[in-house]
Design brief:
- By secondary structure, the protein is an all-alpha fold.
- The protein has one domain (33-241, 252-441): MFS general substrate transporter like domains (Growth Hormone, Chain: A).
- It has helices spanning 3-52, 54-65, 69-77, 79-97, 99-116, 123-137, 140-149, 154-185, 194-216, 229-243, 252-260, 263-274, 277-284, 286-292, 298-304, 306-326, 330-349, 354-375, 379-382, 385-399, 401-417, 421-441.
- Helix 3 runs parallel beside helix 6, helix 5 (99-116) packs antiparallel against helix 9 and helix 7 (140-149) runs antiparallel to helix 20.
- The radius of gyration is 23 Å and the shape is globular.
- It holds the Pfam family MFS_1.
- InterPro entries: MFS, MFS_dom, MFS_trans_sf.
- Keywords: Aromatic hydrocarbons catabolism, Membrane, Transmembrane, Transmembrane helix, Transport.
- This is MFS transporter, ACS family, phthalate transporter.
- It is a multi-pass membrane protein.
């Protein structure tokens, strides 16, 4: 047998082994995905419904508790005071105490507070309830992002992050009609007002899911009884390869100080501050925009809010997969926020027509949700394992300040001008700023996902 034949057979054997190994790995991560993502997705859907249902309550309880547009915007946004204050400690506790205990505590508390919002009777009580809801929910989303880093390497994380963030869209698809339907169904109830029923009925499921999380989830691969020993080793080996080339930091205060003075943490935080302003347009002011365009029925408004969220879900999955495939985040993010900016501009000019308002809210949803999933694939790829918990929480906490300011400022502008036009122009401009920050602030590429040809 010639040397060439020996080499050819050796290469063929090596290629076959590689293909078999990649196929096994694909099956392994499919197994992990099906075990974790549906449950985390359900929890995230309930979370976002409980956070955003205030936009439907506003259609009815504005006069009951004496809220102006500016006061409502402040109340919707003041949620983030509690969220920001407790987010970093919550994420650090998740790393120390484990996912099961931390997620159970978060979900049970936020469910109780959300249900308790049914009993507010003044703007001041509304503000307190929203701050408490933020404190209870603090750490949930960045905790989920951190939890994914315990299981998935960087080249697979964009896809699973997009699947998880479908919760935002599904919450809008389900939450709008359900919230509007509850308002219409219980209108005229002699026991409680319709908006009170809405808070109560939508808050209690989080308590149930919280207790289920404690028994269903595993804190990490080594605790997963549903993985074999070989599967556990594979997952940990892939995660270890992710850490190669990253500087490992040790020491709590030193790590925190290092992160707070890291230019990229600052850039990511500012970009995240700018980008979610569009979420305020969708989730805080979306129902009011549709109502102002000429739709009065609460259930009909809920149905119309399906379009931005459904289209956003499709965009989220497509862009997340495409970003993984090409190993590129920055320009995917820039294009996504560009779509949001265009949608906001068009919405400002045609907000008096309900068809046009729905179409351009949908464009805002497409860009915003796609940008969201790409953004949250960037920081985990930059941080080492020892800095990930604090780094993600810092970016999320500093960025979440926009949740407070955007809702409030948009409310002030709406009250001062009688429409959302000026606010929408502002949202459009800052979307472009967010995109430019990411494009010029982050240069690294993540490894593209390997394909076996199937």
């Amino acid at each position: 047998m010639s040397q060439l034949e020996v080499l050819s057979k050796s290469n063929l054997g090596s290629t076959s082994a590689d293909l078999a190994s990649e196929a096994e790995e694909t099956l392994l991560y499919r197994k992990i995905t099906w075990r974790l993502i549906p449950f985390l997705l359900l929890a995230y859907v309930i979370c976002y419904i409980d956070r955003a249902n205030v936009s439907f309550a506003y259609l009815r309880f504005k006069d009951d508790i004496g809220l102006s547009d500016a006061a409502y915007g402040l109340g919707a946004g003041i949620f983030y005071l509690g969220y920001i204050a407790f987010e970093l400690p919550s994420n650090i506790l998740l790393e120390k105490l484990g996912a099961r205990t931390t997620l159970m505590r978060i979900m049970v508390l936020w469910g109780l507070v959300s249900a308790g919002t049914a009993f507010v009777s003044s703007p001041e009580q509304f503000y307190i309830a929203r701050i408490l809801l933020g404190a209870a929910e603090a750490g949930f989303f960045p905790g989920l992002i951190l939890y994914l880093t315990y299981w998935f390497p960087a080249n697979r994380r964009g896809r699973v992050t997009s699947l998880l963030m479908l919760g935002l869209c599904i919450a809008g698809v389900i939450g709008g009609p359900v919230s509007g339907g509850i308002l219409d169904l219980f209108e005229g109830s002699t026991v409680m007002k319709s908006w009170q029923w809405m808070f109560l009925l939508e808050g209690l499921p989080a308590v149930i899911i919280g207790f289920v999380a404690f028994f269903y989830l595993s804190d990490g691969p080594m605790d997963a009884k549903w993985l074999s020993e070989d599967e556990k080793r594979r997952v940990l080996a892939n995660l270890e390869r992710d850490q190669q080339g990253k500087v490992q930091q040790h020491g709590g205060k030193a790590v925190l100080l290092k992160l707070l003075t890291d230019p990229k943490v600052f850039i990511a935080s500012v970009a995240y501050f700018f980008s979610p302003w569009a979420l305020s347009v969708l989730n805080v002011w979306g129902p009011a925009i549709i109502k102002q365009s000429g739709v009065e029925n609460a259930f009909a408004i809920g149905l119309l809010t399906i379009a931005p969220n459904l289209a956003g879900a499709i965009a989220m999955v497509y862009v997340g997969r495409r970003s993984d495939r090409h190993g590129e985040r920055r320009w995917h993010f820039m294009c996504s926020v560009g779509i949001t900016a265009i949608g906001s501009l068009m919405l400002a000019s045609m907000h008096d027509n309900w068809v046009a308002a729905t179409v351009f809210l949908t464009l805002v949803g497409i860009g915003q949700y796609a940008a969201f999933v790409v953004f949250w694939s960037i920081p985990p790829s930059y941080f080492s394992r020892t800095t990930a918990a604090a780094g993600i929480a810092i970016i999320s906490s500093l960025g979440q300040i926009s949740g407070l300011l955007s809702s409030w400022i948009l409310g002030i502008l709406k009250e001062a001008t009688g429409s959302m036009v000026v606010g929408l122009y502002l949202v459009s401009a800052i979307q472009i700023l967010a995109g430019l920050l990411i494009v010029f602030g982050f240069r690294e590429r993540v490894p593209a996902e390997k394909h076996t040809g199937h």
